[in-house]
Amino acid sequence: MVLTPSAVWRMLRPVSNPCRLASRSMGHVCSGSGGDSGGSDEDPATKGEKGLPPDLVKVGEEENPNFYRMVEYNAYKALNILKPRFLASMKERAQRSGVPEKTQKHRVEGIMALIKNPTCVCGVHFPIKRDDGTYEIIDAFRVHHCNHKIPLKGGIRYSEEVNIDEVKALSALMTYKCACVSVPYGGAKGGVRIDPSKYSENELEKITRRYALELIKKNLVGPGIDVPAPDVNTGGREMSWFVDTYMKTFGHTNINAMGCITGKPIFYGGIRGRVTATGRGLWNASQLFINNKDYMNSIGCEPGYKGKTFCVQGFGNVGSNAARYFEAEGGKCLAIAERDGTIYNPDGINVHDFTEYWNKNRKVMGYGKGTKEMKSSNDILYIPCDFLMPCATEKTIRKTNAEKINCKFIFEGANGPTTPAADKILFKKGTAILPDILGNAGGVTVSYFEWLKNINHVSYGRLSFGYDEENTRLLLDSVAKSLKDQLGKDIKIDPSPEFKKRLYEATEKDIVQAGLAYTMYMTATELIKTTKEFGLQPQNLRLAAYVSSIFKVYKALEEAGLTIT
Ligand SMILES: NC(=O)C1=CN([C@@H]2O[C@H](COP(=O)(O)OP(=O)(O)OC[C@H]3O[C@@H](n4cnc5c(N)ncnc54)[C@H](O)[C@@H]3O)[C@@H](O)[C@H]2O)C=CC1
Ligand SMILES: O=C(O)CCC(=O)C(=O)O
Fold first, then answer.
1. ipTM score here?
2. What Gene Ontology molecular-function terms does this entry list (predicted)?
């Protein structure tokens, strides 16, 4: 039977204490003996900082920290919190295996050091011939962060701001994100340093195909090696060029070649529901918190979306879809920010109507309809609202603007939008933050479904829809017969219109969206459980997410071993 997100949600909604759901977990919830389970006298705002190397402590104070170090700071805080547990588990192993405790300690530290650095950093520089006959050298990167699981996974970004540090940081975020939502991949990321608006379609195709070839030559991509996907300024078109290049070269004998990249168009190996997956996933994850009275009260908020106001920074793939879903739930969009500025209307902006304007004009300025215009994209951060959704780029919320942010809950659609210093300020103000590694994990979750579809060579529901339909009919007949046997009269069992729709009209998209909703709800539930288990404040979801992710990455490495010899 196909479960739609609303069905999953109905299953989950009556549970007032979501922790109870966590007994049914998708991954390994941190548990075990030993270690700090909270109750220490550490300042909750800096929990996990004690014992960090001084240079990382500094990262926690900086206005504009190095992006990679920023991710490392978050990961190391979680490692610090988990270290006593890891040592206790090693001690148990030592007792079983007879390996001395000192060696076990080295092993814990070895694993921690391994998580710290990317396993492979690749920069390529290649020429393309532009339409006007001139030549240009393009800089591009691919980073493999942690290969505790294969393949590795992460999008490809086209932007003038791309640099190796950014790609490294984004690859590390992918490791933690995949672990957070229990998607069995290591983390990777790619970037090409171009402003795509300055190139023709023909030039972009050349760049994409050549970038693909450079990675293929080095054996850095493939369905079982590393599987890229869309990110900023890339989408189905670029994914098609990439997979086509793979299939016509190295992958021409590989039956699974289609699985070398995800985010492909539907008619070229893609999956229904990937385009909207990241924004939809952000909304799915938000539901568990926003509809939970206990949680919302704990951050000084009433539950529910109806009448709540929200603001969105970045109206691309993630932001536009997230805004649409929040509005459909009854939320009121107060403001939208893009590169050219911010528009604001206290009476609300109709997201559907704005989308039509945006699709034609690619700017917020000039939309009119009673909106007030503000020059800077960051002006949106100061508008009082219930929910703020940074969905543009990294480090938009910083030490200098965090104090002026006036919202209850931040939902991170972008990767790395909040610096550690800003995090601490917001924590002290009691603002909850749904962190990127859960908030935008809907994209990689549905990419995972696409990859599974590709390597299984069958679409979701193809084998089961007919069978499920037949089973359900038999079940209804059987219920009718039992009733007749017992009551002695015919009772017509009439499926409700909703049930009939599910039975006869289910599509691949229904399965994908139900799988996405399930993943996000289960992970959100796991994080609430983690906050309680480690004595974290309810709003400290980032630390909970890192603790939960790093526990899983660590456990995989611990089981597998670290070195070949
Ligand atoms: N596309 C996906 O499936 C996923 C994307 N993400 C992250 O979400 C963020 C957005 O990605 P997409 O929506 O895919 O990219 P996109 O290219 O579709 O949209 C990004 C939008 O943000 C705008 N923007 C850029 N800088 C801005 C600024 N300073 N202020 C306001 N607007 C600005 C751009 O003009 C563009 O409209 C990125 O951080 C990306 O890494 C994360 C997970 C998956
Ligand atoms: O869909 C994917 O595989 C990765 C998307 C991505 O780049 C991200 O989550 O940041």
1. 0.99
2. glutamate dehydrogenase (NAD+) activity
Query: How far does residue 167's CA lie from ligand 2's centre (Å)?
Result: 12
Q: Is the pLDDT of residue 272 over 70?
A: yes
The amino acid at 310: F
Contacts of 209 (CB under 8 A, 6+ apart): 241, 242, 244, 245
**What's the pLDDT band for 51 if we cut at 50, 70, 90?**
confident
Q: How many whole angstroms separate alpha carbon 112 and alpha carbon 13?
A: 38
Q: Which of 377, 393, 412, 437 to mutate to test the pocket of ligand 1 (most atoms within 8 A of CB)?
A: 393
**Tokens 């990767």 found at:** 415
Which of 271, 391, 444, 519 has the most ligand 1 atoms within 8 A of CB, as the residue to mutate? 391
**Residue 7 belongs to what H/E stretch?**
helix 5-12
Q: Three-class SS string for 149-200?
A: CCCEECCEEECCCCCHHHHHHHHHHHHHHHHHCCCCCEEEEEEECCCHHHCC
The one catalytic residue in 149, 189, 332, 408 is 189
Helix, strand, coil share (%) of the chain residues, nearest 5: 50, 10, 35
Measured on CA atoms in the order 194, 195, 196, 200, is the torsion positive or negative? negative
Q: What is the pLDDT of residue 315?
A: 98
Q: Of how many residues is the chain composed?
A: 565
Ligand closest to 174 (CA) is 2
